[in-house]
Write a structure and sequence with these properties.
Blueprint: E1 4-7, E2 14-15, E3 28-34, E4 37-46, E5 49-55, E6 58-59, E7 64-66, E8 77-79, E9 88-92, E10 99-104, E11 110-113, E12 122-127, H1 129-144
Antiparallel strand pairs: 1-12, 2-6, 3-4, 4-5, 4-8, 5-7, 9-10, 10-11, 11-12
Bound molecules: zinc ion (2 copies).
One zinc ion binds next to loops.
Length: about 140
């Protein structure tokens, strides 16, 4: 039986290693690293401008690199760089009341984030939480050894 759970940010202990768009294209950057790991990349649009944004792949960390000038309070729209599909989902940020974006994980879970720059609302929704957490922690442990 599959269960779905939301857990709060765990201070950067969990890393998104295989994030994708709703159609299955990988969002992992081949060249941009943040904290030494492949960043989650997306096409970003704001006020008619378009660029690329690279998000720290560690859940609960909020650093990013963006080739557009964006500032706290800006609301960005994120799209898959491969197919252009919007990453927006129906979940509303409980602070900003705007639609969040989602990065899909391999087993049907997803990480949702608020597209307002500076808002630190993140939630991780995972199907089969125990299995996925176990795998992510194992992977994390290996990296540190
Ligand atoms: Zn895509
Ligand atoms: Zn928000």
């Amino acid at each position: 039986m599959k269960t779905s759970s939301s857990i709060p940010a765990l201070s950067g202990r969990i890393r998104v290693s295989q994030g994708s768009c709703p159609r299955g294209h990988s969002l992992m950057s081949a060249s941009t690293l943040l904290d030494g790991e492949r960043a989650v990349s997306a096409t970003v649009r704001i006020a008619g401008r378009e660029g690329m944004i690279y998000l720290n792949p560690f859940y609960g960390k909020f650093e990013y690199e963006c080739d557009l000038a964006i500032k706290p309070g800006d609301i960005v729209d994120l799209f898959c760089p491969s197919c252009g599909v919007s990453l927006a989902v129906d979940t509303l940020c409980r602070f900003c009341n705007i639609r969040m974006f989602a990065i899909h994980l391999p087993d049907g879970g997803q990480v949702e984030g608020c597209p307002k720059v500076g808002c630190h609302n993140h939630s991780l929704t995972i199907v089969d939480l125990d299995t996925q957490l176990e795998r992510m922690y194992v992977e994390e442990t290996k990296i540190q050894m």
